[in-house]
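Here is this case:
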Amino acid sequence: MDDMRKTLFLLTRDVSFLKELRGALEPVGYGIRTHSSFSALLLSCYESEGCVVLDGNDLSHREILNLVQDLRKTGFTHAVLVTEKNPTLARAIGLLRLPIQDYFQLNTAVPELRKMFQAAFQWSETEGHRQAIRADLKQCWELQDDRTRALLRLLYQGLTNQEAAKQMNVSLRTIENRRAKLLEVFGVSTFAELIRIATEVLDEDPLPPAILGKNPQPMAF
């Protein structure tokens, strides 16, 4: 992992916490950048990948949720961790559902801190990328008209072009044109790729039997 992927972006007003993190992480090659506002932190995140640490003592649950959502909508893959002086189980469960990568106490032992941040940077390079892509797909999906959305739902359910045309009471040519638009909109070239995108934007899991059944049959596209 190179230095560009080892930057920790910290939002806190607690000087003692900053000192604690520097003492634990800088000796093993982690860079730390401090910020007094989320807008400043967000701007700084453009410069490199890494992870974000929020001081939960200064932020409400809603504020943290908004910060996480803004990070993903902006396309950032950074893992988000929250720290507090006196963490509670109820607070931890609520925050981890956002989701954040981890929630920890300020006086966590140095070896545990290092393990935690190593896992956070690894998450940024894997699952973080997936979440950023999913947020981008969601934004793209929300811009589509009702007819285009309806067609993707029908295709996802396993309907052929002919069946979708009958269901939507339009011509086969219209369905073919709308399907071509879906491929273009999402930047894919195959039906399989389009179905994978549908699993992300439709929030329907698992795939329907027509796509993944015990004995799937070839589909007429």
Remarks:
- Residues 16 and 106 are 10 Å apart (CA to CA).
- The longest helix spans residues 110-125.
- Residues 1-5, 205-221 have pLDDT under 50 and may be disordered.
- The two ends are 44 Å apart (CA to CA).
